[in-house]
Every structure is written in C-alpha cells, then in structure tokens.
From TrEMBL:
A molecular-function term among this protein's GO annotations: S-adenosylmethionine:tRNA ribosyltransferase-isomerase activity
Organism: Sphingobium yanoikuyae ATCC 51230
Record keywords: Cytoplasm, Isomerase, Queuosine biosynthesis, S-adenosyl-L-methionine, Transferase
Superkingdom to which the source organism belongs: Bacteria
SUPFAM superfamilies, per database record: QueA-like
Name of the protein in question: S-adenosylmethionine:tRNA ribosyltransferase-isomerase
C-alpha cells in the first residue's frame, strides 16, 4: 500500500510536551466498530469494559539510553536500542560518519565504549569498557530517550525519569516507553479489579526503531526493526482461558498488541514466546489474539497509524484522528488515549 494513504495534517499545538496530571485524568476517545465516538477520560475505563475482559500491559522498563560523547574533536550522540551481550549494545549514532570501527567514544562520567561495525539496520555496535554493569553506567551518564518530537522542543529533565515510566515497569531494556500504560494509576487499577476486569503483563523491549520514519513509498518496501519479547506459559494459559470464557483480550499499547499477535497461531491460541519480532501490521492483516486496543494518538505515515488502521479501517481512523485534532486531543507519547473496540 502507498504510505501517503496514512498521512494527515497535525497542528504542532496538538503535540503534548508533558503528561496529564494525575495520569488517569487524560482524555480517552472511545471508538466502537460502528456507532458514534464518545469523548471520555481514562478514569472511565471500568465502566467501558466488561467483567472478564483482560487488559494486557507491557512491563518493560525504560533505561536512560541516550548518551552524548566525544570521539576526538567530534561530538557523537548515541541511542542504545538493543542489547547484544553483557557489555555490548546496538546503537544509532548521531554524526555517525565521524566514527569508524575501533574508535573509542568518551561519554563522560567514566563511561567509554569502542565502536564496532555497522549492521544491516544502520546501527553501530558499542562495546562498553570496564567491569561495571552497563545499566549502572547509563544511570550515571545517560538521559531518558524522549521521542524526537518532544526532545526537539524542550530539554529532558529529572521529571522525565518518572513521567516516562509506567507503573508496571520492572524489566530493564526499553528505550521507549509503552506509552498507553502511562495513563494508569494504582487507584484506576483497583477500580478495574473491583469491576471484574483482569490484568496480565508481558515484556517487549521497545527499540529506538519505533521513532524512525517510514522512508519507503510503499509499505511492502519498509523493513521493521527487531524487538525482543517474552510471554511465559502461565500468562498464555490464563489469556486463552479468559478468552474461552467469553472475555475480551484488550492490548494496552501497540507493543503489547504486536507481541500478542506474534505469539498467536492461526488457530487463535496464544503460545509462550521468547524471541525477536519484526511483525508489521497493515490493513488486510487478520488479527488473531486481540479484541481491542487502548493506544495513544500516533504520527502521520507511521507504522503505528498503519496498525490502528488495520484494526479499525483506514477511513474510520482518518475520521477518528480528524475528530481528535478538531476537539483538542493531545498527541503522541505524553498525550491522550483512545479505546478501539472493533
């Protein structure tokens, strides 16, 4: 399909630079498969779902994966996006033309790395020197990797270390937050439990590739970056049982959705999964695992807008986004949310 079919005009004032406070006060656009859209807030979720439904969250934890350093006189920026080994990460580099295989980059605070060869995704391997765990080095020298559409408008600050982390975060490894879950609070999850709504977690370490634009003119020519995920046997069993009992599986975020779909066979059975996925969902895809999606509002011509168009229909999502823009919904990572129920 042509990528320009997924374009739309987004005013800059609709881009959120800070999250709503409290988190569950963010706006929520309810989008049924047919019928009218409804303007709600995230705190309304318990009344919008049914007892026996399952919300599936991604428990990945964002690490401070952005580094600024020097290679000689050249300033180099690095965004780590995939662990390759104990002290080895794949990274996207800014000013990468100034870095050759074997060069040493000094990121300050005693953090140094040796650059390796480039890979097929355009990344560079970084081998961190010393014996301290890389996560400790990042806490000392790294910054939270805010998306470019926020970082270009303001500096990352200490507040982002908590704002850009969900309440479910426990598995270190993401360089982007599963942002749909940023809206949840302990009070909201308690209200959902009281309403009989179940919750499950899985892990998908979101990579920096999620921020990269689609450069191809046709979706067939776009290559997705790999991300590592895991669903254990017990979680898969509970999800299958809930669905067999009539509950709906509702992914909280496109990351949860992509992993669930990667782990589900043509027979609709969710199976244990521990591997990389490059799944790319566009209109025409037949969903096997999920019955709904809670997600923020995405970039024009992005793989994520293609995904929601696959779920609800492209014309429907163009109408949804036009309504959201006209009525002042806030877009992207720190923005408002939608509940899509095809």
């Amino acid at each position: 399909m042509r990528v320009d079919l997924f374009d739309f005009d987004l005013p800059a004032e609709n881009i959120a630079l800070r999250p709503a406070s409290p988190r569950d006060s963010a706006r929520l656009l309810l989008v049924p498969g047919d019928g009218a859209m409804e303007d709600r807030i995230v705190r309304d979720l318990p009344s919008l779902l049914r007892a026996g439904d399952v919300l599936v969250f991604n428990d990945t934890r964002v690490i401070p994966a952005q580094l600024e350093g020097m290679r000689g006189e050249a300033r180099i920026g690095a965004t780590l996006h995939k662990r390759l080994g104990l002290r080895q990460w794949q990274a996207f580099l800014r000013n990468a033309k100034r870095v050759r295989d074997g060069d040493r980059i000094d990121f300050g605070a005693g953090v140094t790395a040796i650059a390796g060869p480039r890979d097929e995704d355009g990344g560079v391997t970084l081998d961190f020197e010393g014996e301290e765990p890389v996560e400790i080095l990042l806490e000392r020298a790294g910054r939270m990797p805010l998306p470019p559409y926020i970082a270009s408008k303001r500096a990352t600050d200490e507040r982002d270390r908590s704002d850009y982390q969900t309440m479910f975060a426990r598995e270190d490894g993401a360089v982007a937050a599963p942002t749909a879950a940023l809206h949840f609070t302990p009070d909201l999850t308690a209200a959902l439990a009281q309403a009989g709504v179940l919750t499950e977690t899985l892990t998908l370490h979101v990579g920096a590739g999620t921020f990269l634009p689609v450069k191809a003119d046709d979706t067939d020519d776009h290559r997705m970056h790999a991300e590592w995920g895991r669903i254990d046997q017990d979680t898969a069993d509970r999800l299958n049982a809930a669905r067999a009992a009539g509950g709906r599986i509702i992914a909280v975020g496109t990351t949860s959705l992509r992993l669930l779909e990667s782990a589900t066979g043509e027979d609709g059975v969710i199976r244990p999964f521990a591997d990389e996925t490059r799944i790319f969902i566009t209109p025409g895809y037949r969903f096997r695992a999920i019955d709904g999606l809670m997600t923020n509002f995405h970039l024009p011509k992005s793989t994520l807008f293609m995904l929601v168009s696959a779920l609800m229909g492209r014309d429907r999502m163009q109408q949804v986004y036009a309504h959201a823009i006209a009525t002042g919904y806030r877009f992207y990572s720190y923005g408002d949310s939608s509940l899509l129920l095809p």
